């Protein structure tokens, strides 16, 4: 059974810092990996999708990497801003149909 | 609309009642997913539709839960004899590509509270 873990559960950093969020998964047989952002009381916003054949994806200040062999992904956020405060969720495409999610990292950027 | 929409945004019901939650996917997306998110947790898979058929319903917790997608577009999640443990946010997602290959786009969710 695929399990996804995100560390840390919460992170607080000053504005302007670069930061890394971590995601690990137990089964390397994945189709893809997706990073989401969730604001309080809201749905999920897709940030980046990495297919299993890819090593990384970039969008603006965000860069996500994927290492299937070690079962890890990282989300790098450059020059953090208060608007980046949210919960970040990692999800792996498992069993060809569904996403298996981690519990998320709650990120706070302090002005 | 451009994104996935879900109605109602909030639903409060009493234990034992029947509820229906609606999802309208992005136009042209053939794959549709339902997930459930409890407080402080990541979403958990419930059911996946490819077109009109439920291709994978392995995440439905029991037979009180049922979902349909009769015309391959709008989907309804139905919960019979609701229990307090059913309280959660129910999320719907759609994808252009089938088989889990495509990026999934989520709606805002329906917050269900069972009193």
What can you tell me about this protein's structure?
The complex is a heterodimer of chains A (111) and B (115). Chain A is an all-beta fold. In chain A, 0% of the residues lie in helices and 59% in strands. Chain A has no helices and eleven strands. In chain A, strands 2, 4, 5, 9, 10 and 11 form a six-stranded mixed β-sheet that branches. Chain A has a five-stranded antiparallel β-sheet with strand order 1-3-8-7-6, with no helix packed on it. The model of chain A has no long low-confidence stretch (mean pLDDT 94). Chain B has 115 residues and is an all-beta fold. Chain B contains no helices and eleven strands. Chain B has strands at 5-7, 10-13, 19-24, 31-37, 44-50, 53-56, 65-68, 75-79, 88-95, 105-106, 110-114. In chain B, a hairpin with a 6-residue loop joins strand 7 (65-68) and strand 8. Chain A binds chain B through residues 4, 31-32, 34, 36, 42-46, 49, 51, 89, 91, 93-104, and chain B through 4, 33, 35, 40-45, 48, 55-56, 59, 91, 93, 99-101, 103-109.
């Amino acid at each position: 059974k695929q399990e996804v873990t995100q560390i840390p559960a919460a992170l607080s950093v000053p504005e302007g810092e670069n930061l890394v969020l971590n995601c690990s998964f137990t089964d390397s047989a994945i189709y893809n990996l997706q990073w989401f952002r969730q604001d309080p009381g809201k749905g999920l916003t897709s940030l980046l999708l990495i297919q299993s054949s890819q090593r990384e994806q970039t969008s603006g200040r965000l860069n996500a990497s994927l290492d299937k062999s070690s079962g890890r992904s990282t989300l790098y956020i450059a020059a953090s801003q208060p608007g980046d405060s949210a919960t970040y969720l990692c999800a792996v495409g498992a069993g060809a149909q569904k996403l298996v999610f981690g519990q998320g990292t709650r990120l706070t950027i302090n002005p | 609309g451009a994104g996935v929409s879900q109605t109602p945004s909030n639903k409060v019901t009493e234990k034992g009642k029947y509820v229906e939650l609606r999802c309208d996917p992005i136009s042209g997306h053939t794959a549709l997913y339902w997930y459930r998110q409890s407080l402080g947790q990541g979403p958990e898979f419930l059911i996946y539709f490819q077109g009109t058929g439920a291709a994978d319903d392995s995440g439905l917790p029991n037979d009180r839960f049922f979902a349909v997608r009769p015309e391959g577009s709008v989907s309804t999640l139905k919960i019979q004899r609701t229990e307090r443990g059913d309280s959660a946010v129910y999320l719907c997602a759609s994808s252009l590509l089938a088989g889990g290959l495509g990026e999934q786009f989520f709606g805002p969710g329906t917050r269900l509270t069972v009193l």
